[in-house]
Write a structure and sequence with these properties.
By secondary structure, the chain is an alpha+beta fold. It has eight helices and twelve strands.
Length: 302
C-alpha cells in the first residue's frame, strides 16, 4: 500500500476568488506534483524519494510560493526555506535563507545525507550547495511579475487577511511507501515583505515538518509563527503515538489549539496504516492525495 498527499498553501481565499481558468491551473499543478510522487511509490520507491519528487515539481511551478514563483522579501529578493524528514530513521535536513539554490528541497536532503548537521542557513548553506555540485541560479530566476506586484501592494499597505494567500503560503508532501515507511517534506518562500532574516515554520523540524514511523508524517502550511509556537507537526505525531488516538483526532486537536492563539492554516498527514488527513482551519488549502487503493483528488475549498 502507498499514499502520497500534497499541499500548496492555505489561507483566506473565498470561493470565487479565482477565475475558472486560474483554478484549473492550480489544480493541474497539484495533479502534476501528485503524478511525480505517485510514480516513485508505484515502482516501490521510498517515501523519502516520493516527497522529494512531489515538492520539487511544486518548487518549479511559478504558481506556488516555493522555488520559482516564491514571494519576495522587503528588499525584493526571494529567500527560500525547506526541510524534510525520514520517518524510518528520524534523519532530517533543513535549509533557510537561500537565494540561489534552484531546488531548496534537494539541498535539504543533501544536508541530511551528506553533512553531520540538520540545518544550514544563508551563505553557509549555499557554500555547502556549491561543495555538493548543486545547481545555483540568479535570484532573478525565482522572481515573477505576479510576486513583484504583490510586494508592491504589500509595501503600499494593501495586504490584509482578505488576501493573505498573497502574503504567505507553503508547499509540502507526506507519503507512506510499500515498506511501511513515512516521510515529510516542506518548502517555502515565506511571507511577502518579510524583514530581518525572518524564518517561519517550514524549515523547523517539529513545527512545519515531522515524520516518525511510530506515529505519522506531517507537513504544515499557514502562518508560521503560530505553527512554531504550538510545534504543530510534532504535536500531532506525539498525540498519535502517546495518546493512541486516530490521526484525524490529533490533527483537529492541534489545529484547534493553534487557532485559539489566532493562527490559521492547515496540515497534511499520513500514518503507517494508510490513514491520511488533509485538514485546515482557514477558508481554503490547495491540496491533493493519491493512494494505491484508487483514491485520487485535488481540491482548494472544502
Amino acid at each position: 500500500m502507498y499514499v502520497i498527499a500534497i499541499h500548496g498553501g492555505a489561507g483566506t481565499l473565498a470561493r470565487g476568488g479565482l477565475s475558472a481558468a486560474q483554478e484549473a491551473e492550480y489544480l493541474d499543478g497539484l495533479a502534476e506534483s501528485l503524478d511525480a510522487g505517485q510514480a516513485v511509490l508505484a515502482h516501490d520507491g521510498s517515501s523519502l524519494d516520493a516527497v522529494s519528487a512531489a515538492v520539487r515539481v511544486l518548487e518549479d511551478n511559478p504558481l506556488f510560493n516555493a522555488g520559482r514563483g516564491a514571494v519576495l522579501n522587503r528588499d525584493g529578493m526571494a529567500e527560500l526555506d525547506a526541510s524534510l524528514m525520514d520517518g524510518r530513521t528520524l534523519a532530517a535536513g533543513a535549509v533557510s535563507g537561500l537565494r540561489h539554490v534552484r531546488n531548496p528541497i534537494d539541498l535539504a536532503r543533501r544536508v541530511m545525507e551528506k553533512s553531520p548537521h540538520v540545518m544550514l542557513v544563508g551563505d553557509g548553506a549555499e557554500e555547502f550547495a556549491r561543495a555538493q555540485g548543486m545547481e545555483l541560479v540568479s535570484n532573478e530566476y525565482f522572481r515573477t511579475p505576479a510576486r513583484q506586484q504583490q510586494l508592491e501592494k504589500h509595501l503600499g499597505g494593501a495586504v490584509s487577511r482578505e488576501n493573505e494567500l498573497e502574503a504567505f503560503g507553503t508547499v509540502g508532501a507526506v507519503a507512506l511507501d510499500a515498506a511501511g515507511d513515512v516521510a515529510a517534506a516542506t518548502s517555502t518562500g515565506g511571507m511577502t515583505g518579510k524583514r530581518w532574516g525572518r524564518v517561519g515554520d517550514s524549515p523547523i523540524i517539529g513545527a512545519g515538518t515531522y515524520a516518525n514511523n511510530a506515529s505519522c508524517a506531517v507537513s504544515a502550511t499557514g502562518h508560521g509563527e503560530y505553527f512554531i509556537r504550538t510545534v504543530v507537526a510534532h504535536d500531532i505525531c506525539a498525540q498519535v503515538e502517546y495518546l493512541r488516538i486516530p490521526l484525524s483526532q490529533a490533527v483537529t486537536a492541534v489545529l484547534d489549539k493553534m487557532r485559539a492563539l489566532g493562527g490559521n492554516g492547515g496540515v497534511i498527514a499520513v500514518d503507517r496504516g494508510g490513514g491520511v488527513v488533509l485538514d485546515f482551519n482557514s477558508e481554503g488549502m490547495f491540496r491533493g492525495v493519491r493512494t494505491s487503493t484508487g483514491r485520487s483528488e485535488v481540491a482548494i475549498h472544502r
